[in-house]
Predict the structure.
Amino acid sequence: MSRLFSCKYQNLKPYTPGEQPKEKALIKLNTNESPFPPTERAVAMATAAAKNLQLYSDPECRALTEAVADLLGVRYENVLMTNGSDEILNFAFMAYCDDSHPAVFADITYGFYPVFAECNRVPYRTIPLQEDFSLDIRNYFHAEGTIFIANPNAPTGIALTPREIEQILCHNPDSVVVVDEAYVDFGAESCVPLIEKYDNLLVTQTFSKSRSLAGGRLGFGVGSSRLIADLNAVKYSTNPYNVNSMTAAAGLGMLADEEQTRERCRRIAENRSYTEAALRELGFRATDSKANFVFVKHPQLPQDTLYRCLREKGILIRRFDVPRIADYSRITVGNEEQMHALVRACREILEEKT
Ligand SMILES: *Cc1c(COP(=O)(O)O)cnc(C)c1O
């Protein structure tokens, strides 16, 4: 840091993104991207949009907002498109957290939440998950703060039902509850229908995981028109052109191919079942993941050994230097070939090391 960096950021510990390796040959199972490229239509639409890059993008992101509203069965006023869902999450920390509304979230969840809190200089409180990493909703009944719940949770993959989220909403009528549905398309049930009934609910989703646009940076928030108006006020005070026109076009292309996205998500869910079963057979313990990753540990094989040996075999996974989960590995569910390679490599490593 320079001596000029504002002291307001002296405690900032920036988020560490998963590694994006230079070696192309690596099987990349560390950042929960889609193994499938964007559809041809999405690529063609993004390419066509490139021809008009001399113009600013549409600050309202109108066509895409309409398409997302259609897809979800909500109104235009209920949707705000953002630069990845990380941006809408940051907007929510800006709009709804302060000294009298601390952020509240689980001790084991998306690692960006404490960073957003710190960066916006708002206090936060964590609520421990149960021993088995499940979330006891009763611990959130009088949270007295702005609640952030990743559902399915990351990196455990465990999901709550909308009915359970609804109970949290009922018990916190004067607080915003943010449900981060980055992984919802792989097998959990969405809380979007609840926005009609609860004006304190903000649901966030992304095109990064299920819609093959991680590099395009596209996400969105869904909530009551008043919440969306708040978040628009923040957006127009920071970055009115937050979604670039090539990405907006690619997003529209992916939505036109929504059937294909559904089919791809079904395939990922199948590959997840296969991977969990195969790894359990090798002695791994796995959580009940509803996401596009598995969360596993092996009682006889230390995490760092697994990580290093897989890397030597050309497979990259994610680990966490976080209490309670330091023994666990988060492994993205990719295509069939990648999962067979993973299971084969794990079998070889276990034969060698145990
Ligand atoms: C990946 C992820 C996000 C955000 O990803 P974007 O690429 O910014 O849309 C948000 N929350 C969780 C839990 C995630 O895993």
Summary: The chain has ten helices and 13 strands. Residues 258-281 form the longest helix (24 residues).
